[in-house]
Amino acid sequence: MEATNEKVVVILLGLMVAIACCADAQTICNMTYADLMACKLAAMPPNPPPPTSVCCQGLSHADLKCFCKYKNSTILPSIGVDPKLAMQLPSKCKLPHPPTC
Question: Any signal peptide, and if so, which residues (predicted)?
């Protein structure tokens, strides 16, 4: 199930780029643009800092099942996000397991 957590976070971070042009009041899967951006640094190589409380709080309120429909995103590497690091965010935030995609 941890692999599912990781896939969801990878998808979540990929959505940051998709909503960058419309940041005012937009949300995706119950996460604001600010929440998504708060997670970005924690998934950037080579030595990312721990996820911020804003990132973890955003993830905790997100509809993680909603992010499953974005699981094939290829945007992450193009914005400097390492998918492997992104996959570690749920455990670093101590989140419960999301639904299986």
Answer: 1-25
